[in-house]
Amino acid sequence: MRLTALATAFLATLASTAQAQDRTIPLDWSGTYVSASLGVSDNSLSADFPTTAFSLSGSGDAYGVALGYQRQSGRMVYGGEIAAWDVNGSPSSGTRRVDFDDGLRASGRLGVSMGRALIYGTVGVTSARISSPGGPSSRTMGYVVGGGVDLRITPSVDLGVEYLHHRYRDPDDSPMPPFNVEADIRTVGLKLTYRF
Fold it and tell me: Rounded to an integer, what distance in angstroms lies between the CA atom of residue 180 and that of residue 50?
C-alpha cells in the first residue's frame, strides 16, 4: 500500500539518521511533553447490511495533538500519552460516503534512546465517531499500533515522524443492528514536540 511504503521509507530514513548520531550525548528523554502532528491519511471502510455490502476508500490530511509522559531507564524509554486527532478524505464511492471524526487515543510507548534520537513503538486503544451524511452515527472503539522516531533539535524541542494504524471492527453499539463495519485509518505525520 502507498501509505505503508511511505511510512517505511520515512522511518528507515530517520532510523539511519539516528544510528549516525553520537550515542555518548547525555540526553534524558524523561518528562512531560506536548506534541502536534500533521500528515497524510489512507482511510478505508467495509460494511455489511442484511441485504447489501460495500467497501469505500479515500485519502486526505491527518492532524492531532497529544499530551504524554515518559521515563528513561538506561537506554530504555517507556511511558504513555493521550491524544485527540482527526482526518479528512472521507471514504467514498458513488453516492456513498463515510466520515471519521472526533478521534481519541490512549496508548503506551516503549522505545530505545540512541543519543539525540529516540526510536519507539506504540500500542493502545482508540475511538472515533463514524457517520454518513443523513445516516447513522456511532462512536466506535478499536485499537491502534504504530511507531516513530524523534530527533532532539534543541534542549526542549523534538522533530519526528510517526506511523499509526487505527483499526475498528464490528461496533456493538451500532444504531442499526446488524450493521457490521470494519474501518482502517493509516496515517504518516511529521510531529513537533515540546518537552517541559
Answer: 9
